[in-house]
Amino acid sequence: MSHDSAAGEARTEVSRRHLLHGAAVAGVAVPLLSACGSDETGSPEGGDTGGGSDNGSGDGASGATVAVADVPVGGGVILTDAQIVVTQPTEGDFKAFTAICTHRQCPVDTVSEGTINCPCHGSKYAIEDGSVVAGPAPQPLAPKEVAVKGDQVSVT
Fold this sequence. Notes:
This protein is of the alpha+beta class. It is 22% helix and 28% strand. The strands form three sheets. The chain has a four-stranded antiparallel beta sheet, with no helix packed on it. Strands 5-6-7-8 form a four-stranded antiparallel beta sheet, with no helix packed on it. It has a three-stranded antiparallel beta sheet with strand order 1-11-10, with no helix packed on it. The relative contact order is 0.14. Residues 5-14 and 28-61 have low confidence and may be disordered.
């Protein structure tokens, strides 16, 4: 084997190492980036947060319901499968909004201290009207139609 061919093999081996290293880095980075940078909303993982329920449509479509008793006054409940958040800013006054942050389309995950909260970058929305309380969210959460029928809150 000549000196030139040995050097060529060494360069090939280094290139393979770089390729494998790059693939490993990409394999870790892509899921992390897609968790907070995707333009697709998809169905978030997990069940309902805060005891809410829905009709099982799972696509954010109309028809989600939650028991009045499951929506705390001054707070709210996230219907994860329906991608909707239902709030009760004052007793008997129910509001509903999309549960997808307007910044990077992460699902919001909690309702506390008068705000609907996104875990990805700290955006907060008012439970009264879905307006942005803390950024980086550029727009409010989109409102949904709410109807109270008996002991159920229906969202369309």
